[in-house]
Fold:
Amino acid sequence: MVSLVNFLFFLGIILNTYFISVILHKKGLPQPLSRNLVSFTLSVLIAGSIALLLVSFESYKILSVVLIQLLVSGSFIGYIYFHKIDFRLDPLSGWNSSLNLFTNIILALLLLSAGAMYSLFPIEYIKGDRDHGVYVVFGSKIQKTGGLNFDDFRYQELTQIFGNNIIYGYPAIHPDHSPQDPSIPIGSLSPRFYPLFPTYLALSADLFGLDAMFRVNSVFGVLSLVFIFLIAKKWIGSWGALVAVFFCAFNPAQLWNVRTTLSEPLGQLLILFSSYLALYFFRNKGWMFFAGGILGLSSFNRIDSLIYFPAIVIFVGYLLFLRKKSLWRGFNFLFGYSAISILGVLYGYINSKPYMVDLWKSKQLLKLTFFCVFSSVLLSGLLFFSNLKIGKQSIEWLKNTILKNQKILRISILSFLFLLITFAYSIQPVISNSENLTDFFYFKKNSFIFFLFYVPLLLVLFGIGGYDLLVFRKQSSGSLVFLLLGSLLSFVYFYDPSIYPDHYWASRRWVLFPIPFACIMGVVGLYSLPIKKQIFKSALITFIFAGYIYHLYNRDRLIFFERMLSGYSEEFERLSVSLPKEKAIYFTKKQDLASPLRYLSGRDTYLIHKTRPFLENASRLIESGWNVYLIDEDSNLEDGPVTLEKVDKIHLEGNYPLDTVNRYPDMLLYRGTFLHVYKLGLNAKGSAPEKKSVSIDPSQFAYMLKTIRSERKNQPNPQDEVKGYDYYIPKDPKGKFRVEFGGESLSQATFSVTANQSSSVIFPESPGTGDDKKMSIEFSVENPETDDVQIRFHTKKDKQVVLKSLQLSRIP
Structure:
């Protein structure tokens, strides 16, 4: 049945691609690459839109998507039949230029290489603490239940048992209940993300399983590259377009983000697709409306897509002043975008109202709304003014003034861009250094210089030449959609990135469009330089190309052939089979584990704040008939108010770059988290007395960090290996503790202690007291809310340090 559904799904994609291609050929799109690319992309978007509609009604099923797809194919057949269009079409019809054969071969090789790099080395981020993992959770939720309804009214019962120790919801799945609105019951939860990208993840999981989720973006990434080729080809020809594709395809931010389960690559595709349609079909009002609708689909993918609206208003304003005969084409683009965007906003308000309210309170949505309202009012005012006699005269005078002084305007705009780049690169960092800012605020003030991690400064400067070509030399109105969207998004995300500044995390803001925009504009500026002697121009292009390859080598070598966190999907698939399910309920303090375990592996899992109050009250839940399980890092967890029996282990491990802030990632680390699954039972003996001393097996570490590869030069390396040993403090945590280590060459090791899921450091990394055979450290716990400590053992690769024993005791 599954294989039949898969076959019918792809049959629907193929049929829709073919029939759309037939219609486009009749409508005057003879070039096969453009026609087939548009047709295939539309087929992919149709499939996603059908699934999205079903998700909106909590009715998603892969079979339903397939049947509606085939109905859409039938409607295309009806259209073709009634308009008497010939069904027969050679997919290569219109390709008759042998001169393009070589460039097409190179393009195909580039796309195949990029597709391999994107799909063969995915990032299996199945952790619920960040967006990568949250999107996977949402996709799995859609696949299993047909929608994004996270309500769970079991929280009412759990709250009566565990009180405030139970955490409502998960990261990005937040409770709707609040003291201000008691009418909303405890257990009402709503998602904090939009559904289009998770819907594609659900489709991929239904078709090929969990592993396919990590490769969805590779499809969007390759499609984006073809649109980049066609857009750049329009301006600078095939060879320049191939260079633009190469620069974008293997850009480190593009490479990283396309391998992840983040929504930016889909958003990037929608921008490029819309820009391509506006560029090639500007003269057709219907196509412009359609292009706007494609861009409006972004409103179901990311809420910040509302920022596109001011860019479109500027586009319409430009047409009003300088290309009034084309004004309605701009309006059609605006109407198409607005129609779909309004639906996206309504979806968000209905299905994620608390998310919208939170964004409004944090002023992020308030700013977006202000820009949209201000743009609408300004455009309405300009339209009203343009219909007055004085308005018509003023517009005509302004138009003539601009045309007469075009040279001055050209110099002014290009000089302004150069000065803006100079300020962001040279002056703003000096100002920031004098302000003694934290890393976070330094990044926010100087995000442009960190953007240059991904796009070299020289290429950005050549982008000024790209503005010169598109605004003053070619003067193509259709190019302005691409230009204005890229300019506005770049300015907004340089001025206020609104993201935590660890790389590659921060790059996701820029990969949405500023990075491909800067690469394309740089190549356009390079190829449009007014150098008469071709040999000099070719030499310059070769020099820049070679320099960019060296840049890519330095930036990509850490991640190029690495499949990150490669053990995660296998482990979660194992857990979906091995963990007990019958009348089972799981609890854990691990925020990155709870939601994937629940929505991917299908085990009812809840988050708790602390272990101690949980164990003290768990007997009430056991007595009500549940099989209760606790997932904890402490391998020495012992009987207290309830009995504890180890039933399974959870190993989550894989390679991942070092989370650097304001420095490009230069180390690849092995990260491992090792957890124990305990089954709880009733303890007839009552609470066990606390032991004054606990022996911890050195092989039972809960956490491990190990350097795999380092690109650092002339800098001291951090500890090459860190092992963490967790200990839950069963009684009053306040007091002094001693840790005694036994082994060999222990003087070459250092030690540290963290508390409360490593959220605070209570003993910074330091050498211990003792000799090579025995070493000890002492630390104090001052906070009565402390629930656990983690003892960390730091060593270097070139030191033969051996840990044989570890003893933790409370100092009287």
Notes: Residues 467 and 473 are 9 Å apart (CA to CA). The longest strand covers residues 642-657. The longest helix spans residues 216-249.
